[in-house]
Specification:
Blueprint: E1 3-8, H1 11-18, E2 24-27, H2 29-42, E3 46-50, H3 57-66, E4 70-73, H4 76-85, E5 90-93, H5 100-108, E6 113-116, H6 119-128, E7 135-139, H7 159-171, E8 175-179, H8 190-206, E9 212-214, H9 231-246, E10 252-255, H10 259-262, E11 266-276, E12 280-283, H11 294-297, E13 303-306, E14 317-320, E15 322-323, E16 337-340, E17 348-351, E18 372-376
Helix pairs in contact: 2-3, 7-8, 8-9
Bound molecules: pyridoxal-5'-phosphate.
Length: 380
């Protein structure tokens, strides 16, 4: 899994030259930096990046170069990497459950922002974290809506508990803030509206003026041909809603996109191992590899099929059942994928918008999972 020094014009050029047998992730730094600037220019507050969505060092380095000054981290390994690659950046330790040993690492690395959703975890922070200049954000949840899957099932205090925690944070001398995560691939932006209004009423119930409101990640990426997410409309909605809900007590806003930041900058090239009896298509990557997320969140139909010589297949599309390379029967993409009727063994199937939760969750199951990362100027 190395990054070669060559920069190719686009994936088709690389594929035709190299005819790789293993999957390839094509990374376009320019696309990532453009998206970072879109967030920084458009979001009405501080933009941080959720490292877990793609922790590749080239991703972190390009985000830092584009002006991202904060990172949402969840583990000592992520914190150590950010300290090494972006030493000046703020780290927000927003995994609400931490071992005491992990909190000690964060304190030693100078982390000044933590989130919490329970009394026991808050007690640990009060024990171990110096209050001076340090923020604790209370994370709350609402009944799920609008997202591809439910984050509130694991984390987030109820509204009553959140008010209680917020009071304790303020009384303990920490900077009181609040946070929520509306769920990932949040195509219905009204989720942010509900959460921001709820945050204002929790702060009011607690009698605490919050310094910052972190509106989470969840910004959608472009997964389906016909559905283009409108980030600027979401930013405007968040801004308007915060103004309406908090008025003169308006907190500083923070966001922590993962998917919405990184997805578009990476495309995956898989190779067709077999078209079995002109029916099922078998790829060299699947749900234990870089397509891990698809059974949970749904298909990506932004595909392109290229011959080994790099020519686009253009025959009329036909729905196909697509399997990955392992011997496990769940290694199958959800539903059917529309692919050109003349797709053939050794062709490449490109999936666009695959920068998030792809290489980050790739396993080595069944001896597969080797993937190269190649830099390209453009993805199309
Ligand atoms: C995973 C995560 C994010 C990023 O979510 P995306 O849907 O990828 O934007 C942001 N905040 C927290 C707390 C997370 O756990």
């Amino acid at each position: 899994m190395g990054l070669s020094k060559t920069i190719w014009a686009k994936p088709a050029e690389y594929l035709a030259h190299q005819q790789p047998e293993n999957p390839v992730l094509f990374f376009a730094p320019g696309v990532l930096q453009d998206t970072a600037r879109r967030f920084i220019d458009g979001f009405p507050g501080l933009v941080t990046y959720a490292v877990k969505s793609n922790p590749q060092e080239v991703v972190i380095e390009n985000l830092a170069a584009a002006g991202v000054r904060g990172f949402d981290v969840a583990s000592p390994a992520e914190m150590l990497m950010i300290r090494r690659l972006a030493p000046e950046a703020a780290m927000h330790y927003n995994n609400p459950v931490r071992a005491r040993s992990e909190i000690a690492v964060a304190v030693a690395l100078g982390v000044k922002s933590y989130s919490v959703d329970s009394r026991t975890e808050l007690a640990k922070l009060i024990d171990l974290v110096p209050t001076e200049g340090c923020e604790i954000s209370v994370r709350f949840k609402l009944p799920v809506q609008g997202a591809a899957y439910n984050f509130g099932a694991k984390f987030g205090a109820t509204q009553d508990l959140a008010a209680d925690l917020l009071r304790t944070v303020a009384e303990a001398g920490f900077i009181p803030s609040m946070t929520f995560h509306p769920g990932t691939q949040c195509v219905d932006p009204s989720a942010w509206e509900s959460y921001i209004h709820a945050a204002a009423s929790i702060a009011q119930a607690a009698g605490v003026r919050i310094a910052r409101l972190n509106v989470g990640g969840g910004f959608p990426s472009h997964r389906l041909n016909g559905v283009l997410p409108d980030l600027e409309a979401i930013f405007a909605l968040i801004d308007r809603t915060t103004e309406a809900a908090f008025g003169a007590d308006r907190p500083v806003l923070v966001c922590e996109p993962g998917r919405g930041m990184v997805a578009e900058s990476i495309s995956l090239a898989t190779r067709v191992k077999a078209v079995r009896d002109d029916e099922h298509v078998f790829l060299n990557d699947g749900t234990y590899g870089n397509l891990d997320e698809l059974p949970m969140i749904g298909i990506i139909d932004r595909t392109e099929v290229l011959t080994p010589e790099g020519r686009a297949r253009t025959a009329a599309p036909r729905g196909r059942i697509v399997f990955g390379p392992t011997c496990d029967s769940v290694d199958r993409l959800p539903g059917e994928l529309m692919l050109p009727g003349d797709i053939a063994e050794d062709d490449y199937v490109m999936f666009h918008g695959l920068g998030a939760y792809s290489i980050a969750t790739n396993t080595r199951f069944n001896g597969f999972g080797d993937v190269a990362i190649e830099t390209v100027l453009a993805l199309h």
